[in-house]
Write a structure and sequence with these properties.
Number of strands: 9
Helix content: 25-40%
Radius of gyration: 15 Å
Structural class: alpha/beta
Oligomer: single chain
Order of helices and strands: EEEHEHEHEEEEH
Mean pLDDT: 91
Amino acid sequence: MSEVTPPAEAKRLSVGDRAPAFTLPDANGDPVSLSDYAGQKVIVYFYPAAATPGCTKQACDFRDNLAELNEAGLAVLGISPDKPAKLQEFIEKEGLNFPLLSDPEKKVLAEWGAFGEKKMYGKTVTGVIRSTFLVDEDGKIALAQYNVRATGHVAKLRRDLSV
């Protein structure tokens, strides 16, 4: 099996850290790199699975707030372990208007500290840690939030960023 098993305690990113570079396929299978956004601010968020209730709520919140985020100079990228075909279905079904990227090997998730041990229903499990980052124009982490809630997260993010 080719799946990468990251360490249970993945290193978490902090404000001021250089954002780990990545190139991942989008829903069409086209490569998207963090470096494509050099010189601008980008929100990078990690979520467990497309088309699940929490992830749908979060993605739709980003969709519904995208115009205001873009007006404030913020692009949005969502990353999950889903394959591009599933991402495409999710985008079409929910009318999503920003790129979703595929990381089935969970390599980028691990590099960003968004994969590892987490508590779920009182049990410790290994999986995607719902996380959101703001990468500044210089490619540094300006905001790092782990274990975020799907519901209300975009509104909180807008308050945190004064958008």
